[in-house]
Amino acid sequence: QQKVQQSPESLIVPEGAMTSLNCTFSDSASQYFAWYRQHSGKAPKALMSIFSNGEKEEGRFTIHLNKASLHFSLHIRDSQPSDSALYLCAVSMGTQVVGQLTFGRGTRLQVYA
Amino acid sequence: NAGVIQTPRHKVTGKGQEATLWCEPISGHSAVFWYRQTIVQGLEFLTYFRNQAPIDDSGMPKERFSAQMPNQSHSTLKIQSTQPQDSAVYLCASKLGYQDTQYFGPGTRLLVL
């Protein structure tokens, strides 16, 4: 059964800092890797996703995947107080169609001004 | 686009009572997922429909939980004989069949006393 683990559990950074969040998964057959962000009391919202090894950048956010290491990460450049939230990584086994997601427990990020 | 709609937003039941949770997916989305979120377990997959057909219910506690999707505009999750350990936020998500991103609703917070 897929195990997804995140580190650190929580993180406090100053405004403008680079923030790095990590996620490891157990099943090497995993095909889809995503990050979701959940503000307090709100629905999780997709941030970024990736299928293949390498990096993808969208604005201040970069996702990096290394399947051989069973690891992917999210990097936030120029962190803002509005980035304060619970960050959830998610993995799916789906090949042709991405199905259900297995989530990590989350990293709680606080960005202070 | 109203997003995924979940009702009720909050529900309090007594131990042993039945709870029915409703989800209206985004119009045109063919896949519907149910997840449960608690502080202890995090966000866990329960069940998944594609084009109204059940695809995977491997996350469902078999004895008391059931889910249906009678038409493309709504799905229900029913919990019979609720127990205090069923207290959680129940999240519904939907997606287009050919896309990967799941869009979550705001959740139903269930409290079993």
Helices and strands in order, then pairings?
The complex is a heterodimer of chains A (113) and B (113).
Chain A: E1 4-7, E2 10-14, E3 19-25, E4 32-38, E5 45-50, E6 54-58, E7 61-66, E8 71-76, E9 85-92, E10 102-103, E11 107-112
Parallel strand pairs in A: 2-11
Antiparallel strand pairs in A: 1-3, 3-8, 4-5, 4-9, 6-7, 7-8, 9-10, 9-11
Chain B: E1 5-7, E2 10-13, E3 19-24, E4 31-38, E5 42-50, E6 53-56, E7 65-71, E8 74-79, E9 88-95, E10 103-104, E11 108-112
Parallel strand pairs in B: 2-11
Antiparallel strand pairs in B: 1-3, 3-8, 4-5, 4-9, 5-6, 7-8, 9-10, 9-11
Mean pLDDT score of chain B, rounded? 94
What would you call the structural class of chain B?
mainly beta
The profile of the biggest β sheet of chain B is:
7 strands, mixed
Task: Work out the radius of gyration of chain B.
Answer: 13 Å
- The Rg value of chain A, from CA coordinates, equals 13 Å
Distance between the termini of chain B: 36 Å
How many H/I helical runs of chain A? 0
The total count of strands of chain B amounts to 11
Largest Cβ-defined interface: A-B, 20 and 24 residues
Can you tell me the residue ranges of chain A where pLDDT is under 50 for at least 5 consecutive residues?
none
Work out the oligomeric state of the chains in this entry: heterodimer
Largest sheet of chain A: 6 strands, mixed
Mean pLDDT of chain A: 94
Beta-strand content estimate of chain B: over 45%
In total, the number of strands of chain A is: 11
Secondary-structure element order of chain B, N to C? EEEEEEEEEEE
**N-to-C order of helices and strands of chain A:** EEEEEEEEEEE
Give helix % range of chain A.
under 10%
First-residue to last-residue Cα separation of chain A: 41 Å
